[in-house]
Backbone:
């Protein structure tokens, strides 16, 4: 049975960020609470409780300490309540959810009726309703659409973990009754990618397992997506929920996991499946069959083969959890995996006790070409010979001695279905191992090509082990805890040493040729343990050196986003990761790198600084793009009215973004004609306002703005226009009186004005 893992399975960036913040705060010794379960996964909740991190359903349950707002987010009234209670707040709201909250708040202020497509009981949706001041309505049934589409201005958003197909269906129905509705598909891209990858995998397997909390909305939707493909689907929360009967007669099983599922859950499930797969002891049967073939060499080997079978039986223990990472040196985990795989590594080609004993040390009796003239070769030595005859059962060899040699078919490594005549021809010269020398009643020397190949291979392995020289081998099969490689003998590659990172599906490597390092040898047990990770680390180090030697400060190059943190993004620029600080990601203000970047995305970066000794590189994404301040004079003029969103409210004024990456200051004195104690009395963050440009200074990156002057200009435009009609002298005889010409003009009013002037 093959196990295939879906892409994008497990923790999303938002959940991982929330957990990291929680653990960091817990490590500082604070009394810690989460408002509601941090994630919808019981295993994670249990792990948090073990660390003394409790969750509460209401803030009233907390007297003092630190409260963490989970990735789903909370409504603003919860924040205000926590501040009143003087609790320290750690806001672990997912950056994507935070963007949706801000969008709902802004649309509400603009007068839109908000429709949220999602589960009204989901904490994220409850939070969004709060950011609409309680005015939003939640649609979880397409039949409710008509009732909610009566307003003139409607804006539609979605729960971030909603299935895209369902949202599209609801939107289609909304547009029937309200074609002008604003549609905002606020479904997290990670959710969409996870669901599509799961659906694709489900079409290619016989059965699919979905791992995640039973109360997790996104995991339930993931299972529903898989079920729609027609593939049998099982939703489990942990490895213990797996049923062995599900896997009976299954050739390929797929595995995926929800956004709140930790990596250790996937590893436990993989380990459990591997345990089910190995229950048939297929590997043991193969080893026993190979051992029995070796009994043909000498009758003395029967006792040794029996002992080896007992050893194999004793080593078939429960599979250990596959480790994701280990140190370069031979860590305890590697030793444990090597012991697990020992039953698969023990080479089936067992030898008679007498010969095996000789093999534990290098033979001191190997003959050179100058010694060929010796009349009788020594047992255990190596000798050259030329084939003089090949039959189906043996080869006859001229040793240039008194006696000829014979090589039995059993002493040659042949592929399945291959004969001696297929591989050898008369006249071929071979290096051979002397198994037996002639006695009084024997005429020929018994030779072994197989034993010579093994002897040479062991010498090569020992040399590679001592010098660190790389070897090449082909992966033959997947076993408990790792891979079996064909080096001429079976070598074990622990799962944790297959790649630089954890690889859940080892089946992909079967048949692949790979370079490896020998890290452990036990010649008496025919045991070889190898590492591919060490080779990859060496290759990566060479690539790093080449990259560091070929890049220059100030150069713009292309890279790939590898991971995101609160303080920035790590970008691979060729075997080495450089740091793009959050301040260097965008010309605009951002709260988290995920607002602008995604893992796996290709980006252009500018090299700011290089430290070859510490292998540190500082990069900038924004400086690889045009500076928006360079076009400010082209786009704006002094005295012009512009509209922008308030990005920041401070004591001395507000900063307004008038174009992406360009912010101007409205000083507190320029907010209104009357005295303003604090800008928050008039405006708030996120609000869009129209301001007048007082001054532009691109070199200092400063623009002075005025809300007061903009309002005055608007008032001037709205005043009624007074039209003064010219009195034509020809109208004197037209019949108009002076009063009619002057309108309501009053001499009394004029006198009053004159008195005032005096």
Residues:
């Amino acid at each position: 049975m093959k196990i295939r893992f879906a892409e994008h399975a497990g923790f999303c960036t938002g959940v991982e960020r929330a957990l990291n913040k929680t653990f960091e705060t817990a490590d500082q010794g604070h009394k810690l609470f989460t408002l509601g379960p941090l994630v919808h996964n019981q295993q994670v909740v249990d792990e948090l409780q073990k660390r003394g991190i409790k969750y509460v359903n209401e803030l009233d349950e907390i007297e003092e300490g630190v409260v963490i707002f989970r990735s789903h987010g909370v409504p603003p009234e919860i924040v205000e309540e926590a501040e009143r209670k003087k609790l320290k707040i750690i806001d672990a709201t997912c950056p994507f959810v935070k963007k949706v909250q801000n969008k709902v708040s802004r649309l509400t202020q603009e007068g839109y009726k908000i429709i949220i497509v999602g589960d009204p009981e989901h904490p994220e949706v409850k939070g969004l309703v709060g950011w609409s001041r309680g005015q939003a309505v939640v649609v979880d049934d397409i039949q409710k659409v008509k009732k909610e589409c009566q307003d003139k201005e409607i804006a539609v958003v979605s729960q971030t973990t909603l299935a895209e197909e369902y949202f599209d269906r609801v939107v289609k129905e909304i547009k029937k009754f309200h074609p002008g509705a604003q549609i905002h598909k606020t479904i997290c891209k990670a959710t969409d990618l996870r669901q599509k990858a799961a659906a694709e995998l489900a079409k290619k397997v016989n059965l699919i397992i979905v791992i995640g909390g039973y109360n997790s909305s996104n995991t339930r939707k993931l299972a529903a997506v898989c079920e729609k493909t027609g593939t049998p689907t099982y939703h489990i929360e942990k490895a213990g929920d797996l049923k062995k009967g599900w896997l009976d007669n299954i050739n390929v099983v797929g595995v995926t996991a929800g956004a709140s599922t930790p990596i250790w859950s996937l590893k436990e499930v993989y380990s459990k499946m591997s345990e089910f797969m190995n229950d048939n002891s297929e590997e043991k049967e193969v080893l026993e069959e190979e051992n029995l073939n070796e009994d043909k060499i000498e009758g003395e080997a029967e006792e040794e083969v029996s002992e080896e079978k007992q050893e194999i039986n004793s080593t078939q223990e429960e599979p250990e959890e596959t480790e994701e990472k280990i140190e370069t040196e031979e860590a305890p985990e590697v030793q444990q995996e090597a012991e697990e795989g020992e039953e698969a590594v023990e080479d089936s080609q067992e030898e008679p006790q007498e010969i095996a004993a000789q093999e534990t040390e290098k033979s001191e009796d190997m003959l050179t070409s100058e010694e060929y003239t010796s009349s009788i070769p020594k047992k255990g030595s190596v000798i050259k010979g030329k084939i003089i005859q090949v039959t189906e059962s043996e080869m006859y060899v001229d040793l240039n001695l008194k006696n000829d040699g014979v090589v039995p078919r059993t002493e040659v490594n042949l592929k399945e279905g291959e004969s001696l005549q297929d591989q050898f021809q008369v006249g071929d010269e071979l290096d051979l191992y002397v198994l037996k020398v002639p006695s009084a009643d024997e005429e020929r020397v018994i030779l072994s090509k197989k034993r010579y190949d093994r002897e040479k291979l062991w010498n090569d392995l020992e040399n590679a082990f001592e010098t660190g020289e790389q070897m090449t081998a082909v992966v033959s099969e997947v076993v408990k805890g790792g891979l079996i490689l064909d080096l001429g003998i079976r070598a074990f590659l622990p799962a944790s040493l297959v790649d630089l990172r954890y690889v859940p599906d080892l089946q992909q490597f079967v048949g692949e040729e790979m370079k490896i390092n020998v890290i452990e040898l036990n010649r008496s047990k025919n045991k070889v343990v190898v590492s591919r990770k060490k080779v990859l680390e060496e290759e990566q180090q060479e690539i790093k050196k080449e990259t560091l030697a070929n890049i220059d400060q100030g150069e713009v190059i292309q890279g790939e986003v590898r991971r995101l943190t609160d303080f920035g993004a790590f970008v691979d620029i060729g075997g080495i990761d450089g740091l793009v600080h959050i301040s260097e990601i965008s010309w605009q203000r951002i709260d988290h790198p995920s607002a602008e970047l995604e893992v796996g995305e290709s980006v252009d970066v500018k090299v700011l600084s290089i430290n070859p000794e510490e292998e540190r590189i500082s990069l900038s994404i924004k400086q690889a793009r045009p500076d928006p301040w360079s076009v400010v004079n082209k786009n704006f003029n002094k005295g012009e009215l512009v509209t922008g969103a308030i990005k920041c409210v401070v004591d001395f004024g507000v900063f307004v973004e008038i174009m992406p990456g360009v912010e101007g200051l409205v000083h507190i004195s320029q907010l209104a004609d009357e005295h303003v104690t604090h800008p928050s009395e008039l405006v708030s963050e996120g609000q869009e306002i129209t301001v007048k440009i007082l001054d532009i200074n691109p070199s200092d990156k400063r623009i002075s703005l005025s809300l007061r002057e903009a309002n005055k200009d608007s008032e001037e435009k709205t005043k009624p226009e007074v039209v003064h009609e010219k009195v034509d002298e020809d109208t004197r005889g037209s019949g108009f009186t002076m009063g009619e010409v002057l309108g309501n003009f009053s001499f009394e009013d004029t006198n009053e004005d004159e008195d005032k002037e005096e």
Summary: Residues 280-340, 342-374, 724-758 have pLDDT under 50 and may be disordered. The two ends are 108 Å apart (CA to CA).
